[in-house]
Amino acid sequence: MKTLPATTPQAAKLCLSPVAVWQMLLARLLEQHYGLTLNDTPFSDETVIQEHIDAGISLADAVNFLVEKYGLVRIDRRGFNWQEQSPYLRAVDILRARQATGLLKRNRISAAR
Fold first, then answer.
1. Domain chopping of the chain, boundaries
2. pTM of this prediction?
């Protein structure tokens, strides 16, 4: 009889805590869109993340609060156009971060079409 490990890499990834998921997404979003690291923000403390989760604050709202409070400017926008560009995160930014971090599988998107 062959013995298998209790957890596979796929199963371990599916069992991430909400705090770990937030940390992964925050690290990606802050670096890509604002040039910040997690340590540059209050979110370097896991208890701060847990408090936001417990309060029902969405990830986008948490980041957008930092944007507003500190006047953050997005660095991922190219050039300027006649329309004012919003510094705030949108749902599509979080969706792309989920995909980039492996928290959203590509085949799930294809199946939804």
1. 16-112
2. 0.75
